[in-house]
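Notebook entry, structure prediction.
Reason for the run: the old model in the group folder had no record of what sequence produced it. Starting over properly, with the input documented here first.
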Amino acid sequence: MADKPNWVTGEACLWLDNDEYIYHESRRIVKQSMANKSAGTYGDRLALERLLREAAPASGGLITLIHDVDWDYVIDRLIDDIKEGYE
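New structure, fully documented this time:
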């Protein structure tokens, strides 16, 4: 995992950590993929992007720059959280 994500990736991580619904939903998506040994797939990226598009305000920079999110970083971070017991 990269040491320091770009701004939009950091914002995506903040939203995934701080909104209760997408916190649990994002971990459910990744946990299910881990069980299927398919974590980090294109489907995971699309599902996480969909969560953020539904939750984050359209006026914020996250949505306008969502194509710049480093989803590998985000998913690796979620996997680490799951392994540490944060679900």
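Summary: The CA atoms of residues 12 and 52 lie 7 Å apart.
The old model has been moved to the deprecated folder.
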